[in-house]
Each structure stands twice: as structure tokens, then as C-alpha cells.
Amino acid sequence: MKNCLSTQLNPELIDRLSQNDLELGNNFIFTSGISNSRIFLKHVRLYDCALLQLTRASLQITTSNGYEITIPPYSICYIEKNTIFNASISVINGDDCPYNIYYIKNDILKSVCKATESLVTEYENISLIYNRKVFFFHATEAEHTIFYRLLNTEIPQHRLVYKIAYLLSKFEPYLEVIHSLERCIAPTLTEKVKQVVSNDLTRQWRLCDLSKHLHMSEISIRKKLEAENNSFNSLLRDMRMQQAARILKRRNSHINTCAKMTGYTSTSYFIKVFKDYFGITPKQFSLKVKGRNTFSGLN
């Protein structure tokens, strides 16, 4: 099917970009070489649909059901919400960030689906054989420019929607991508918990606190999260570690400041949790993501 959005949306109408968050999964490990570094991530789980832009990197993904895909440098990738996967990223040395992630939040997701629904109505009775969760395409310079400008937090929502829709129109088969988005519209309890906790990540959250905010019993919260293959403790740890990764990428913060901003009263315990989660210390992580080629000499 020829994608109407490809011709309807003009890349020249896009606004300026800003920097992006770096959110990674468990067991983040670096191995360094002369020309590149390899990053291994195990049991990664994304809590929103995501667009991933690769520049100085290639990516190999293996999903929990055994599906494997290799994505070359200078590509743009789509990953469905709640996909669990292992990843291997080969990073070519350089000064800029080798990849960026844009998370499609639920309110934007609904608007994107509404904007694209007229394009797929004639195919609504088609039954899809595969439920793919990962797609990519080789991006042109104009398409990379559109992605960069998605990261500008000051862009009005309607412009964000059409930029996202334009990029989504480049994936093939397009209909499968749209069906993937539609599967993700219904909000999960995991998302509701994230919304509550993210308002104050420094708080010492307990399940009873969450129960009061959501007007649900602790047992109901626990069982519904289990049904979504999640738990309150693992979700809270994910959120804190991912926020720590953002802070260490964006700012010249001291480790103890980063610990306090993510809800840890003990810096040494924060460092332990961070290393258990990512496989390296906060200092090593900070040096690596800022492009300093000093990682191999660190203990």
C-alpha cells in the first residue's frame, strides 16, 4: 500500500531539535575496542512505544519469543510498548551520541492513531498473520532531521503528531505498524503507576502509598501488575535507574546528587544498585555516554 502521509507531510515544515533522554534496560555492559564499543543490554522492557534513531551504531535485537533483527547504522527503528528483548549495540567512536530514543506517550499515541485511521479503513478486514513488534527503515538526511526535531519539547502537540505519523509511514509493512500502535492504546496499570510515582521520584514509595493514590487495594495492584509481567519493586527500580541515566547524561552532577534525585538516601547503596542494574558504575556510565574514550582504563 502506498503511504499517503509520505506525500502529504513536508519535512521542511519541521522545527528545531533539543537533546533526548537515554533510557536503558537491565545489565548494561560495555566492551571496548579500537574502532568501536559493544553495548549489551539484557531483558530490556520499554514502557511506551518508541522510535529509535541510530547514527554511529548498529543494533541487534532478540525478542523474548525468539525473533531476531539487525538494524544498520543511520536507520530509524520502531519498538512496540512492553516488548521484552536483549540488545547488542555496536558503537563507532565519535563525539556525538550514537543513538537517540523518542518515547510516544499515550496521549500522543491516540492522536497518531486517529490521524492515520482513514488510511487503513479499506484494509480493516485483513487478518494479519504476524504480530511484529520491531520495524526499521534506512533513513534519509531529511528523515533524520525530522527525528531530531521531535526531541524539541516546545513543539505543539499537533506538529508532533504529524512528524511521528510521517516517520511511521516509512516503515514496511505499514499496516502492521498501525496495528501495533492500536494494540498499545489502552493504558495499563503499569503506566498509571508510572504516572503517580514520576511526580515525586525522591519519595520513599511503598505499595500502601500507591494504594491510596489509585484507590485500589494492595492485593489488586500486585495481581494486576503480575498479569502485566511486572511488579511494583521492579518498576520502581526501572524508573529510578532510567532517571539516573538521564541525569548522568545531561548534567555534570555529583553521584551523591544523582542518588538523592532518584530517591536514594545512601550514595553507596545507589552505586551498588546502579552497577547491579547497568553492569557498570555511575562514573563509568557518565564517562562513556559523554563520549570520553577513557572507559577501558577504569576499574
Automatic annotation (TrEMBL):
It comes from the Bacteria. The keyword DNA-binding applies. SUPFAM superfamilies: Homeodomain-like. GO terms for molecular function: DNA-binding transcription factor activity; transcription cis-regulatory region binding. GO terms for cellular component: cytosol. Residues 191-288 form the HTH araC/xylS-type domain. This is Transcriptional regulator, AraC family. Keywords: DNA-binding, Transcription, Transcription regulation.
